Amino acid sequence: MPYSQGDLILLKNPVKLPGGAELKHPVLIINSKRGGYEQYYTGVMMTGTPKNDRYSFKCENQMFTSPLGKESCEFRTYLIFGFNEDDISVLKNTMKKPHLIALINQIKDYIFNID
Amino acid sequence: MTYNHYNLQMTITHPYHLDPFYSNRLFSFKVIFLNITSRFWKYISLNLNSFRVGIISGLYKDLGKMFLMVEGLKGILNSIEDLSIAKEEYIYAEKALIKFRKYYYLLEDVDFLNHEGIKDISSKILLGLYEIESKLKFLSFDNPKDIDSDKELRQASSLISINTMNNLHAI
After folding, report:
1. Distance of alpha carbon B10 from alpha carbon A86, whole angstroms
2. Which of A42, A44, A86, B4 has the most C-beta neighbours closer than 10 Å?
3. How close, in Å, is residue B58 to chain A by CA atoms?
4. How many CB atoms lie within 10 A of CB A106?
5. What value of ipTM does the predicted structure carry?
6. Where are the domains of chain A?
7. Best to test chain A binding among B77, B123, B164, B166 (most A CBs inside 10 Å)
8. Between the CA of residue B58 and those of A85, B28, B85, what are the distances in Å?
């Protein structure tokens, strides 16, 4: 199933850290490269731990097509990584367009400094 | 200096903030009225359509003026170099964004009154306010000192990306 920009997904296998702990954070797809050998996506990580710093993008339920089910969530705009379609476990939600554009603009302007 | 004198001086020295909202336009009334009435308007037999159309027209004008203000505010952002001003204005910019987002949700809830112009200009204002807020946020906050608290998340991101790149090379 092809996923789109703005889809909030969970990854199939939680990442195992060297200490043994498993991380299963929601990830928002900000870019999807299609037509290659396989679907390759770029995502930004969401966290429930509010930081309120220059790299946070706060979320509200209304920014998504269905409620998030958590009071305070934010994206950490510098935690960007790539993954395959096979790594995706489930589609949880979808971010609405204007908020997605604002988030991507913030990443472009302050993480990558793209004019 | 009395409180009133101090207050007056503050008003004179700080005539505006980065806040595009007017206090005298009944903007919130129009949005809330239209949000509520849009749900049951088709069931009302009274001929009040011209009244409603008037309010929609007024709201569209208000949004147009607000759009111009937001564009103007974006224009003066680059001239802010003083960190203390950026920090002070960030509070107003964040408040304005949160406030407008509430109105945006109300309009979105009723499909922007089936008015393409209102939909378009509301989205542009929202994006403009996001731009102002993110710029001031970036200026106001230093690099996070507790970035180590994100260590696990950063490790996770790196591991996933490395695994993905390995898989791509293996093809």
Report:
1. 59
2. A44
3. 24
4. 24
5. 0.84
6. 7-110
7. B164
8. 48, 12, 34
Give me the residues paired with residue A76 across strands. A56
Q: Which of B153, B158, B168 to mutate to test the interface with A (most CBs of A within 10 A)?
A: B153
pLDDT digits (tens, 9 = 90+) for B21-35: 766 668 888 888 888
Mean pLDDT of chain B: 78
* A:20-59 residues touching chain B, CB 8 A cutoff: 21, 23, 25, 37-38, 40, 45, 47, 49, 51, 53-55
CATH of domain A7-110: 2.30.30.110
Amino acid at B116: E
Please tell me the least confidently modeled range out of B29-38, B47-56, B120-129. Answer: B47-56
Nearest CA in chain A to B144: A53
CB contact (8 A) between residue B130 and residue A51: no
**pLDDT band at B10, cuts 50/70/90?**
very low
Provide mean pLDDT across the span A60-64: 93
Q: Are B97 and B66 in contact (CB under 8 A)?
A: no
pTM here is 0.80
Q: Which of A21, A62, A110 sits opposite B138 (nearest CB)?
A: A110
Token pair 């509200």 is found at: A60
Write the CB contacts of B6 (distance below 8 Å, at least 6 apart in sequence): none
Indicate the Cα dihedral angle B99, B103, B109, B114, nearest 10°: -150
Which carries the bigger pLDDT value, residue B168 or residue B152?
B152
